[in-house]
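Supplementary notes for students who missed Thursday's class. We covered one full example, reproduced here. Read the sequence, then the structure, then the short commentary at the end.
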Amino acid sequence: MNYPGNVKKTYKKAINYGNRGMDLENLINMINDYYVEKNIAIIYKKPTPIQVVKYDYQKSKITDAYYKSASTLDYNGVYKGYYIEFDAKNTNKNYLPLSNIADHQVLHIKRIINHNGIAFLIIMINDECYLLSGEKLLDFIKSETRKSIPYDYIKEKGHKVNYNYLKGIDYITAVDILIKERCDREKDNQK
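Structure (token representation):
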């Protein structure tokens, strides 16, 4: 913008990265509510277990608390008879740092898969959204020495998921693909 005297001023909007994950969670929560309302799936955000140490009864407010245990994945539920559990990850880089996925979460994903559940990540990257199956995540971790999952891997191995800020992230069609892939593998194993 030019001001009198030909003084040029530019304003930079402060970028707040602190709520990126919350925005992603809000989009997922919106679609999960829709899935429940339309009887498509029952999937909820799991609360993180906390131990309350101090509580102010006059203000009805927790004043001191700590996490009881490490959280597993953010969401779980059931769809078409399949147990589903997943986590939401958001990055403003061209890759997802593996440090964003805790070791206990990787172990939990392995356990879910071992019990024939469906585990995955919903990843927001480069203004796009992808569903990356737990199997593809574990394959990457096992075969790579990198400390991050590149965008190209997520794009190639994941399933692109449509989203908008009015409806949320409609990931259930990508889950249908995971179920079909599983059924195809089971048929191949029976031959």
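Commentary. The longest helix spans residues 172-190. The helical segments are 20-37, 103-114, 134-143, 151-157, 172-190. If anything here is unclear, bring it to office hours.
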